[in-house]
Amino acid sequence: MQPTILPGDHILINKLVPGPRMDWLCNTEIASVNRDNSYRISGYRPITHADVLVFNAPYHGSGKLAKNWEIYYIKRCMGIPGDTLSIVKGIYGIRNSEGSFEVTTPANKFIDTPMDNEKPGMFEALDWTLTSFGPVYIPRKEEMIRLDSINIHVYRNLIEYETGGQVSFSEGRCYLDGKPYPYHTFTQNYYFMAGDYAIDSQDSRYWGLLPEDHIVGKATYVWRSIDPDTKKYRFDRFLKPL
């Protein structure tokens, strides 16, 4: 997330965006065991474009989508539910009910890099690269989407996470646990996350859309900062807004 967040920064998180998650109401097993159920109290506003969010690592050590309760990521939200997101020549573009626009953040500053031909493994079949990506539609809670040979690569892991079943695709048809499954109704909102230092960021370009139940809250301020090399306080970063 450099230059927005530097090594040695300590940050404050506002859990009222999108609402505090009551993890203590979940099954209290060992933290390294994934628990896929959570309860969230309504927040004072929803997540929006360019919010910097803290969330559970979605795929750490596994090809399956699941919460990792020991590892947290911090990234910037580039796409929200209802958006159709594309990356063209390294620039994030959004199309939704309000029109089409670019998301202007530090993540746009990676044009003409060696990443131009790098294809993330999850989307290799779609021939997407890290700087030419999508379009991908970001689903909303309770929205039904027809599954096809393109979007199955985007939604397969999300469907398996929500249903606990096994998704397959054969001869133009989608199956769940061996039974025809042409549509899926999503049970939660999803988001597209990106790091500000985009040339070296494990984000949604690699692992896909983030479920809302992984999100802890919005990073708001650097409350203090210590240079990891000199061990000196960086007072110019104290209370720096994010």
UniProtKB/TrEMBL annotation:
Matching entries from PANTHER family are given as: CHLOROPLAST PROCESSING PEPTIDASE, SIGNAL PEPTIDASE I
InterPro entries, alphabetized: LexA/Signal_pep-like_sf (IPR036286), Pept_S26A_signal_pept_1 (IPR000223), Peptidase_S26 (IPR019533)
Entry's family note: Belongs to the peptidase S26 family.
- Name of this chain's protein: Signal peptidase I
Which residue numbers delimit the Peptidase S26 domain?
Answer: 1-223
> What is an example of a Pfam family matching this protein?
Peptidase_S26
